[in-house]
Every structure is written in structure tokens, then in C-alpha cells.
Design a protein that fits this description.
Blueprint (H helix, E strand, L loop, with lengths): L1 H16 L4 H32 L5 H22 L7 H30 L3 H34 L1
Helix pairs in contact: 1-2, 1-4, 2-4, 2-5, 3-4, 4-5
């Protein structure tokens, strides 16, 4: 649910600044990149904690939520595909949607792994992958937004 809230905020910010000048869109992208980095860091820290204190996740819930979220995120990613090389604002939304769809596939696979092994390890490995996706996406968005801000300052 935290991920869905973050996505909604990401889409809202992107829509609000869509018609604004590039420097406004780039500043919004810095905010979105920072929140994505915070989310990735939070997932990493909670995953490391779960290695020691974790319990077995419910693979039924993981599967159902994973499939439903995959349908929503693949739809969003398909709609945003043409904007994947756009400015940092649009590229950020694309990266977020793409990462979510990849994450959904991984969560569904992890649910199967939890079911087959009776271990939380598949879930934890997927959480580490999701953290890496979020941190990589955040880095890409922030780097492009900074370039856009420099370009608007130099102009």
C-alpha cells in the first residue's frame, strides 16, 4: 500500500508540472527521485532487519496482490512507454511504472518460492532486488534532472 501511495503521489506531481517550464519539471523530478531513493533505502533496511527477525510471508496474499498490481502497472507502463526517453519528469514516471511491473513479476515468483521452500528467503531476495531497482531509478532520475537544471541555468 505504501508503494501505491508513492505511485499516486508520483503521478500527481507529474501531472501538476506537466505544462510548466523545464526547470519546474526538473525540480519536481528531484523531489520524486529523492522519495524513490528514500523508498529504496527503507526497503533495503527493512529487508536486512527481516533477515534476522522475519517471519514467513503469506504466499496467497503475495500472489493475489502481485497479479492485481501487475495488471495495473503493466497498463500504466504501456501507456507511458512512448515517454520513456522524455524529460526527467516523464522519464521518472515511466521508470517508476516499469520498476513496479518488474517488481510485481518478482513478487509473484517469490510467492511461488515461499510456497515451494517454506522459507522467507525468496521474499527477502526479491525485496533486495526491488530496493536496487528503486535506488537505480532514483539515481537515473536525479542525474537527468540535475542536467536539465544546469541546461536551463546556462541558457
Amino acid at each position: 500500500s505504501l508503494d501505491f501511495l508513492g505511485d499516486a503521489g508520483n503521478y500527481l506531481i507529474s501531472l501538476l508540472v506537466l505544462s510548466m517550464a523545464l526547470h519546474h519539471r526538473a525540480r519536481a523530478s528531484l523531489l520524486k527521485g529523492a522519495t524513490m531513493a528514500a523508498f529504496g533505502t527503507w526497503v533495503l533496511l527493512t529487508t536486512l532487519y527481516q533477515f534476522w527477525a522475519g517471519s514467513l510471508p503469506n504466499y496467497h496474499e503475495m500472489s493475489i496482490v502481485g497479479v492485481l498490481a501487475l495488471l495495473a502497472n503493466v497498463t500504466a507502463a504501456a501507456l507511458l512507454y512512448t515517454f520513456r526517453e522524455g524529460d526527467s519528469n516523464m522519464r521518472g514516471v515511466w521508470i517508476c511504472s516499469r520498476n513496479d511491473a518488474i517488481g510485481n513479476l518478482l513478487v509473484i515468483a517469490a510467492a511461488g518460492g515461499v510456497y515451494l521452500t517454506g522459507s522467507n528467503l525468496p521474499d527477502l531476495l526479491v525485496a533486495l532486488a526491488l530496493s536496487a531497482l528503486a535506488l537505480k531509478g532514483a539515481s537515473t532520475i536525479i542525474r537527468q534532472a540535475r542536467q536539465e537544471l544546469r541546461a536551463t541555468t546556462d541558457a
